[in-house]
Backbone:
């Protein structure tokens, strides 16, 4: 029986969320293709994580063991997958929607000279396979035919809901030693530099994000945005117009080429709602837009809106919060 | 150490708040749109210009795209890039075919006497987001590749590169030549000056027409995702809306 391989990324001895999503898509693919779902795990702790994969329906887990895989080395990881592709000739290798997994799959694709479709939301087996993948950071979908003896793809993050298999499998764990060359280890992580920030609430994890756009008008104008974010225990974000103007650092930018956020509530102030900005805030549960222009795309995309000048509205909200709190 | 640096950029439409497709569903309707390159690629161009300013050498920009993509090549040259290579293509190439065409161009450059030490790519293209062209080119050349780079420094004849990961930055050290794929935030790109724009008009652009070949990821059609059609509830106008906003924040449970 042909195998469908899923790349499982793991942290602390268990498959991470994106890998569970990938395994769910891979299982559907395996069912449709009449194949067995198998996993590949690379890096320290792989064997521990492999033990918990039965629930996802993984029949067999291939755990790579090699001294060179202690630190992340993208080409070595890609070589490890390429080795399995030639040894097992799987119908497909499905990987999670992390940037690291995409990088590893691109290496595997380059080594095997196979096509590779990044960020798929669905995949149907066949020759070629039919996939739907995201473009423009999720603002557009592409239906495509994916060729190659083994189909290589990643699953766009948070587009597939991770579910356990109807009947759990007993996972057979098999370790193997990939064939790595010195050249595969030239680009590898040699140290971890900490970023200065620390302490504050990270944009990616914040429950509340208050963002400012070109409408804020200046770096100083962000004082009112910061005040409101602070009152709500949230993080400050911004649009690209703001980072280009130098009013805020790029680490604050929300969007396709900035940070992807997923707060309980997102409050964009003076941001028009370009598709590339929306690509970063699709994960927000609710959007409350503050904008002078009732026809701004951001208003149409929002759940709630206040039409007005942010320089009046934002301080008024902060004052009202203080009033109800009696501070 | 004088360097030869190549930057690869892709012409893409500047979409607005809503994407409209052409009737054949093969592309974005661009009649009313301007064009640009990915912000990641802009940072690659800026980094190349800075490295050449600091170390001497020469920078080249390359694009695979329609004749109109010369606009993006001139834009990059206005920022200080010395010369351009235009691979002419009417249709979009998939990741494999794009890499093949770029590798052929780099090999032709080598045959003509130009050896690059660094090739900069964007981490991903703005439109297709294939996450692969730079890596495929690195393999074909036999060079190391580091992706998603947010800091570049020349060190002991090689490169020290920082990549942002959850919780910090991973550091890589690689020898030259190398492929580096970069992300926005690496630097703050300069604006073109008027003399820069004038000079760019006279800089050389060499063009050729590569074969597209079979497409391993063959685009069938594009689809605009259906939005959930969220009704927008207007809470009010101006400062008077504040109480309604605070009520909402209370309901959502973020007032603490
Ligand atoms: C490939 C690519 C990637 C990109 N990636 C990103 C990205 O990651 N993130 C991102 O944000 N952008 C990104 N962009 C840029 C994006 O296309 C827009 O240009 C940008 O988001 C616009 O920023 P803005 O909304 O602040 O400015 P504008 O579009 O100028 O909008 C300003 C808004 O403020 C409103 N306004 C003005 N004054 C006031 C006031 N006093 N009170 C209230 N409202 C007011 C106006 O009505 C308007 O709606 C990208 C572009 C490209 C081509
Ligand atoms: N048509 C193209 N012309 C020149 N460079 C390209 C082209 N397509 C992709 N690239 C480069 O490869 C990077 C990654 O693209 P992709 O693999 O499509 O995500 C881009 O940021 C560009 O630097």
Residues:
């Amino acid at each position: 029986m042909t195998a469908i391989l899923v790349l499982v990324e793991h942290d602390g001895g268990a498959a991470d969320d994106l890998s569970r999503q990938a395994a769910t898509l891979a299982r559907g693919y395996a069912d449709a293709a009449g194949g067995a779902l198998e996993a590949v795990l690379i890096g320290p702790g792989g064997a521990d994580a492999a033990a918990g994969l039965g629930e996802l329906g993984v029949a067999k887990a291939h755990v790579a063991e090699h001294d060179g895989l202690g630190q992340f080395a993208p080409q070595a990881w890609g070589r490890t997958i390429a080795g399995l592709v030639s040894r097992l000739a799987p119908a497909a290798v499905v990987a999670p929607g992390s940037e690291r997994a995409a990088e590893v799959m691109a290496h595997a694709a380059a080594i095997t000279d196979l096509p590779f479709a990044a960020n798929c939301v669905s995949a149907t087996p066949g020759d070629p396979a039919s996939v739907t993948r995201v473009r423009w950071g999720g603002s557009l979908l592409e239906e495509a035919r994916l060729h190659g003896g083994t189909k290589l793809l990643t699953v766009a993050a948070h587009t597939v809901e991770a579910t356990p298999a109807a009947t759990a499998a007993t996972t057979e764990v098999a370790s193997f030693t990939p064939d790595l060359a010195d050249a595969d280890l030239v680009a590898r992580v040699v140290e971890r530099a900490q970023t200065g920030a620390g302490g504050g609430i990270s944009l990616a994890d914040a429950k509340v994000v208050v963002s400012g756009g070109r409408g804020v008008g200046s770096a100083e104008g962000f004082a009112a945005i910061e005040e409101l974010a602070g009152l709500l225990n949230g993080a400050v974000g911004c649009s690209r117009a703001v980072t280009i103007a130098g009013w805020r650092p790029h680490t604050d930018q929300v969007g396709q080429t900035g940070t992807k956020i997923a707060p309980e509530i997102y409050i964009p102030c003076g941001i028009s709602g370009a598709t590339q900005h929306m690509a970063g805030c699709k994960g927000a549960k609710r959007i409350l837009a503050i904008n002078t222009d009732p026809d701004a795309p951001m208003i149409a995309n929002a759940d709630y809106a206040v039409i007005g000048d942010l320089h009046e509205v934002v301080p008024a909200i902060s004052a009202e919060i203080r009033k109800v709190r009696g501070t | 150490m004088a360097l030869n640096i190549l930057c690869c950029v892709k012409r893409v439409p500047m979409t607005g708040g809503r994407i409209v497709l052409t009737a054949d569903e093969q592309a974005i309707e661009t009649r009313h749109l301007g064009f640009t390159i990915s912000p990641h690629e802009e940072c690659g161009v800026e980094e190349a210009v800075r490295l050449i300013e600091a170390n001497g050498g020469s920078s080249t920009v390359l694009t695979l795209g329609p004749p109109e993509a010369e606009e993006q090549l001139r834009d990059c040259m206005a920022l200080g890039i010395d010369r351009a290579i235009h691979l002419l293509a009417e249709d979009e190439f998939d990741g494999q075919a794009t890499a093949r065409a770029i590798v052929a161009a780099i090999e032709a450059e080598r045959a003509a006497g130009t050896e690059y030490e660094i090739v900069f790519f964007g981490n991903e293209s703005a439109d297709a987001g294939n996450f692969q062209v730079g890596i495929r080119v690195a393999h074909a050349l036999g060079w190391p590749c580091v992706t998603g780079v947010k800091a570049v420094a020349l060190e002991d004849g090689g490169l020290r590169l920082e990549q942002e990961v959850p919780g910090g930055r991973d550091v890589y050290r690689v020898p030259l030549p190398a492929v580096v794929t970069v992300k926005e935030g690496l630097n703050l790109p300069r604006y073109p000056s008027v003399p820069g724009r004038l000079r760019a008009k006279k800089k050389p652009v060499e063009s050729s027409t590569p074969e597209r070949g079979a497409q391993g990821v063959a685009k069938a059609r594009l689809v605009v995702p259906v939005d959930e059609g969220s009704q927008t509830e207007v809470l009010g106008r101006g400062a008077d809306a504040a109480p309604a906003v605070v009520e909402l924040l209370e309901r959502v449970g973020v007032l603490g």
About this structure: The radius of gyration of chain B is 22 Å. Residues B 8-10, 38, 40-41, 62-65, 95, 98, 121-122, 124-125, 128-134 surround adenosine monophosphate (ligand 2) (CB under 6 Å).
